[in-house]
Write a structure and sequence with these properties.
The longest helix has about 45 residues. This protein has eight helices and two strands. Helix 1 packs across helix 2 and helix 5 packs across helix 8. It folds into two domains: about 80 residues; about 150 residues, Lysozyme, CATH 1.10.530.10. The protein is mainly α.
Amino acid sequence: MTATQQFTQGLRIVAKDIAQGFFEITHNGFALLGLAVMFAAITLTARPEIRQAGELQLMGWLQNRHVVSTGIATEPDAVERATAANPQALPKQQAAVAFWLSKKYSVAPEPLSALVAEAYEIGQRTKLDPTLILAIMAIESGFNPFAQSHVGAQGLMQVMTKVHSDKYEGFGGKHAAFDPVSNLRVGVKVLQECIARAGSIEGGLKYYVGAANLEDDGGYAAKVMAEHARLQSVATGKPMPLAAPPVTSVPVKLPAPETAQPVGVENVAHLANS
């Protein structure tokens, strides 16, 4: 065997050894990787808190990348805070009310659908007609959840937050007055107390608006009852014209006379000229 042949054979042996070593290293590496994946899967299954933490970190990284690329800070859970519902998913009666109110007050049907559904649910629990509850919201705020009068009546139902701050404790505090559903529930509670005190719906509305000790409530109860009647007709399928909506600017509040006795749980000084 010549020197050239010996050199060539040596190169072949070296190349074969290198290839075999690379294969063994790669094979062992994949085996180790497979074991690592298996142990990671077992750990994540047994420790869900670790999996959740990993998911949060991954979502945070993806959101940061999205902000960098688009310039918009996203929040995937924001939709859970939205007060909205699909009007097509409501019962026929409720959907009719939601669409009618949407057209009359120029409010999107989705948030109105959520309020209508809540009014019907709480109305069933409290034995109050849901269309009465909706009529009060219509006259008080025109379905503006951020409405506020100059005397402090706030939200959809224009509840006097300072007077009824205790009722918001179960909702996290007085700022819940601007959460539509929380304001609706507190407003209904105030309305219940007013009706119980007065002994009738019309009398309760007079208490609710803070005119219990006045001869005239500024036509408030009449306006609510008229809208209530219209909504009842809409709920039964009767077509109703879209009358001009009530004025939703800051209402005029008439204070009670100095000689008047305290009126209790109602919306004190909440007489609306709307």
